[in-house]
Amino acid sequence: MGLEITLTVNGNTHTAELEPSTALVDFLRDTLGYKGVKLCCNTGECGACTIIMDGKPVNSCVVLGMDAAGADLVTVEGIADGDELHPVQQAFIDTGAVQCGYCTPGFIVSLKALLDRTKTPTAEEVEEAISGNICRCTGYTKIFDAVELAAKQMS
Amino acid sequence: MDYFEPKTVSEALALLDQHGEQAEVIAGGTDVMVDIKYQDEPGCLVNIKRIPDLNAIREQNGGVHIGPLATIHELEESDLVRERLPLLWSAAYQFASLQIRNTATIGGNICRASPSGETLAPLLVLEAEAEVTFSDGARTEPFSAFFKGPGQTSLGSKGLLTGISVPFPADGSHAVYLKHAVRGPMDIAMVGVAVMATANADKSALDDVRIGLGAVAPTPIRAPKTEALVSGKALDAALVKEAGASAASESSPITDQRSSGEYRGWIVDALTRRGLAQCWQALTGKEVA
Amino acid sequence: MAKAEYTVLGTDMPRMGGVERVVGKGIYGIDLNLPDALSGGVLRSEYAHAKIVGIDTSEAKAISGVRAVVTAADAPDKRYGRSYIDRYILAKDKVRYMGDPVAAVAADSQALVKEALKKIKVTYEPLPVVVDPEETMKESAPTLHEDMPLPKNLPEGLQVKNVCGYTGVNIGDAEAGMAEADVVVDEVYETRMIHPQYLEPRIAAARPEEDGRITVWANAQAPFPVRTEVAALTGLPLNSVRVISTDIGGGFGGKGSGVTSSAALEPICALLALTAKQPVMIVMDKAEETISTTIRSGCKIWIKSGVKKDGTLVARQGKVVYDAGGYSGFGNQAGGRCTQMVGGWYRLPNIHMDGFTVYTNKQVCGPVRGPGGPQATFAMESHMDSIAAELGMDPIEFRLKNVPEKGDSIVGVPKLRDSSLAETLNLAKEKIGWGKVKLEKNQGIGFATGAWIEGSGPGGGAVVKMNEDGSATVHIGKVDYGTAARFGIPMIVAEVLGIPTDDVTVLNVDTDASPWDAGTVGSRSMLVSGNAVKLAAEDARDQILRMAAGQLEASPEDLEIVDRQIQVKGAPSRSVSLASVCNAGHNEIGDVIGRGYFDSKASQAHERETGSSQPFTTHAAMVEVDTDTGNVKVLKYVAVHDVGFVVHPKAVEGQIEGAAAMSLGQALCEQVVHDSDGRTLNPTFVDYLMPTINMLPRIEAITVSGYPGAGPYGTKGAGEIGSVPPMACIANAIYNATGVRVRRLPLSPENVLRALREAGK
Fold it and tell me: Does position C4 have pLDDT exceeding 70, yes or no?
């Protein structure tokens, strides 16, 4: 049985049907077409599917799609201002933090949420914000660089 | 698969009565979604997330009342929890990634009844009580009676956890939660040890020592013999060593993909010693000598 | 040559495709949107070793919406493999590991696929399971492949079984050498299986075309081998199969060995599509991947070295037992490389090594990042520290005593043109502060060196097509997954053609259009495609300059291209735009198409003659060991590398840092855990522990210069060598901190504490 929900993604209102057991990540990707939300571990461990739900970063693979009814979501597609990249996005490019890029959307979203909370995050806060995002390519060094660069440019 | 979003506790209980074993309750979803993905779908899903007022955190009857739908991160952000229940706060902080802490609920962590559940050993040590509700009424019971085995609680298939009551720890008490994992908060604990104690009046001995152990028995447990061994005594190196060994002997860890039972025993020993030493130092200002 | 000679090379150009990645455009295989595609899925063996008595698909086929159900009976009777052709795309008669594909389904929805897979009834007759690579060689072990012979080169008189590869190393006289030694150190090391765990799941999609061809989409590092195998395994000629590489979300070799890597996902998908006569797409689940796709093997290594009192190495003997898994996969190649690398890269006159690659009932070996190297080096470089300790020598001094120099031969290299090993050792020592930094209790510093010998391998081509506005469209055979294809490669084209990198587009691989290539593996993107693209760009430039020469009334040799203008050298006012020449080319030769190729055979012959310059590295780590719990915290990590000339500094650092981090994961916590039935106990990321940012220090990658390699402008491969030293480096740091040698990976809290307790600490 398909159930209908209405939600907001990146400021756009969507009404669509989903099977009640559907994970939010699958609903966002397959039904609404937000392919920037990356599917990976399906267990809430890697952070590739991170989105901001009502102001908080969550792993959309372990959120029930039905729980998004009435919610306000931000995905990686909603972070740039038109063609103007968010400082975190630009910093990822400039520091070489994008290798294969598959984890990048999740990091961008987690860090956007962090930098919305504070423009001057401590090392501990950065670590807390993105320990739930696995990057298999970079060894994180360039990601540290990107966060520092973005924070510097935003403050 | 049938799907329900009850708007009240009694509506939820009626659904559980009706669907029994077929029903799976979902709150935050961080465990249930994984089950749905990797196991057979449940017959029906009862999503209690939208029942109002089940996520409150408030002071009540000389303690803190916590609604089961409070997320782990809401516990961390609560001044009441941070200031009055630092042990629980510490477990919440080490729980998992921020994304998971924003989604997972304390009720889910409790009802999952995994021996490694991060908040469980602290709740045992805090001598918290569960408010357990069935369609024919509610009762409270201590968590020491609530956990029956891995994944088993006194809720069975028809009860709901509707509240958690945590009494304020005694004034002047100190507690630590020590989690053993390779990647800190990101891993399921190999072992979790919660230690709480107070000092006697002249700070020459510990009183009311409580030790909770996670991931080393079919349920989270207290270590009563070890507690008795150290309560009322001044800690010295020999006693701490004896207490570590005692706590290890009170645990019955299994071997799994995370570590061997033998190793878990060693860690119970080490973390119990560490927890006691930290409490001793915080309460008396002295190192264990 | 100094960097200043170049306009583009040596700068940090933004990665091509960076914007798409940071804004979340759906560019990866998993994002493929194929209209009318069915969902596909694979039924995998639930036994690690069993006879297939029967498969009943009737119930699955009867489900409405199920469009194809296939088993081995539906596929051509053909097998695939790398060294041993020992595997059907769907298991026939027998399954050999838990995860072996048995049947596949295509249906209208993923839910129907799941339902249909459950309805397929496979009757198994369980057979004894062997998971231990040493046990499998014994007479008492079950036979895994009844019709596979022992390797032809196996030394005579050995009573072994289940061996699918042998590598011998014989240099000098190891027996005699050992007899001359003052000190002999004899040790045994063990490593565990890890999975590469690239984050993007494997996909395959296949669409039968109206003209009888089939198009296959794959997130594979080696699209051409995939095409060859899909054609062979579906019975189609090569010109009827087109493989298109999607953008790839990580690979690390795990997507690198043709259809072996994916356990034949691409030919299975093609078979489903051909049967259903409809497009089919299969997306693997990550837990399904852990149990079924290729892995870095575990192995056991015996290593014994003889040394003089002054620290001169005189002999080494050893044995490697390398676990290929249920099929040979890449096992023989990786096991062979491992065996050679246990021989080392120091000056060592007498070496004897026996390397056996063996079948067990586990996941299959693939070419995961430096195949064989990290395992070999864990043993070899830990062993070097053990020898130094036995001699009472400083570990750096002991290594420096034995480093190879110009003109020396080392295992796999007949003659070195130069040697950077000593420089990397000295620099690593300085950067970590060895002998200077004050170490607290239970803190220690460790070193390990590494090499990644650039040996033989196929060549490959490049095509640079000039567009009439002066921009360039580039075809190479290597794919982009954060590697050279869209970092360094466009820079080379831009440098040669005098255009900005924004004017260069490097296309992904489409086997209908791209030059053939063996795959983006072996740290060979720069060597093969870099050399080829340089020549192709030079070819295009020469054609352009010849056309421009007439207009400018100068000879082509006197012309240069600077900033999109063709000008007379020394008289820049005499110029014509690159665009106008490319445009005018339409009336002469159509378009300018530059072609270049890397002739691997000629390059190797040249290097045999002149000697070769090999990449070397030294890593240094500072750790703190919690002797109560066994926890190891890495406080500082330095990776000094010679990778020849550096085209894109951040790309190279990124490769080194990432490779090091991956092996730090294997050092500290990563492993695929099996029970004695061959079941994987940690298939999901819940218990498959990869490094997170909170457990790693910032890795400091440093490159040294002055040792040009065989790549364009003197580059050397940089993608794998960073994964070689870390496991030994951490083990050596733990030894330095505690005096205890841990010889079994991972250096997890449990293994470390166990070793400490066994040593009475």
Answer: no
